[in-house]
Design goal:
6 helices, alpha+beta, Flavocytochrome C3, Chain A, domain 1, 176 residues, 2 domains, two-stranded antiparallel sheet, elongated
Length: 176
Amino acid sequence: MIFDQQYIDGFSFIDAPWGSEVPSWVSRANSVKELAAKLEIDVAGLAASVERFNGFARKGDDEDFHRGEAAWCLAKKDVWKPTRADETYISPTLGTLRIPPFYGVELHPSAFASAGLVANASAQVLNQRGLPIPGLYAAGNNAVHTEYGVGYQAGFSLGSGMTFGYLAARHMAGLN
C-alpha cells in the first residue's frame, strides 16, 4: 500500500483517530523512488505505476483496476476533498500520489478477507460438489466473501455476517 500526505490529511490510517501521526513502523520517504528503494521495490516500476495512476486520478477513470466505479464508493462523494488548492479531481474516490512524504507498507491478505466456508445465498455451507450440507450454515468471517472478492474492506464482514445470518435464520425457519 503506497500513499502520500494527502491521504493522511484526509483519512484515518489503521483506524487511528483522524489527524494521528503515521506509526514509526511505516516506511516513508520524500520521493517515490526513495520509497521504492526502502521497500525493495523496483524503483523504475513503482515510479511508472505512480505516474500512470496519477493520470487516471486526474481524469477520474482507473483503467487498470476500476477503483471508484462501485455505487457504494460513489455514494460517499463528499468525503474525499483535495487538501491542496492546486489539484482538482473528477472522481471523489481517486486522488493523485504527489505530496511528500510518501508512505508504504506491505499488505498480506488475511483469512478474514480471503478464506472460509463456501456457502450459497441461504448461507448453507456447500460440499465439494457444490451441494448444501444439511443443517450447516456459515456467515460473517466463517464464510468465503464471494459477494465482493478478496480485499481489505473494513465493515464488509459485519454487513455480510448480519445479512447472511438473517438469510440462514430464514432458511432454517423454512421461510426461503
